[in-house]
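User: Predict the complex.
Assistant: Input components as received:
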Amino acid sequence: MPELPEVESVVRALKGASLLGKEVVSVEVFCSKISSELPREISGRRLTEIQRRGKYIHFLWDSDLKGKVSLIVHLRMTGQFLWKRESEPAGKHERVHFLFSDGARIAFQDTRRFATLDLTTDPDGFFAELGPEPLDPSFTAEAFFQRIRIYQKAVKASLLDQHLVVGIGNIYADEALWLAQIHPLRASSSLLKKECAQLYEAIRTVLKKGIENGGTSLGDAAPNFHHLNGRSGQNQEELFAYGQTSKPCVRCKTAIEKIVVNQRGTHFCPRCQV
DNA sequence: ATCGCAGCCTGTACGC
DNA sequence: TGCGTACAGGCTGCGA
């Protein structure tokens, strides 16, 4: 379940794959859910930039003849980009192949077909509803406090709401609440300014640590997260709440509990998260 | 208006 | 062994 650190890791891997500036000569689509316009719109264009916005990957393409267009990809749970050998056939769950002029072949794989690929000439409009980037300098503790206080729902549900702040998913929400010692069912609007400041710091801490570790890869119920080069992130080794059901809380030794909040498995310490 | 929840989809982990 | 079922997850769209 790629969240901000996983998507950031993917973007860095893609940028490091020296695809920028290269032209796509053809695009093959193997999934009926994906727009058949993709090959026509992308073929013959140069990849000029790759950016992350929340959990979205934003590919910017240019063409002397056709101007600019954006391809905006959301990995959802199982989307990943893979390097392929030049003439290697598509694997079972590969949905799109991008063939570059230098022979590079990049596959987009998505086992559960939840991922989305959108073409737009108005990326600002596409992203207009999204909340602020949690790691952006302009996003301050005060700004977070002013935003979250108007949410009526449980703080866990608010953290998952991409209108409040982008990039947080189920894993990092549980980790941030554990670190801030805030109970996931607390009403968002009940948080004191001091608690919001703690949560703000916790969000930034867990996301930064996730990026440093190259993202979180889970191999049991959840699908693996892989870099473009096949390496998995290591952040799953440093989780304190998510997936730690019945294990002792690192702070107070109380068993971590699992409940359901907002239809999501939610892990927390019943003693030190209040 | 706001919230909760079914549905999308497939692989994996269980119980019988 | 083989089958069936529950579950995981982000987000949209529906109904309450």
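Chain A has seven helices and ten strands.
Let me know if you want any component modeled separately.
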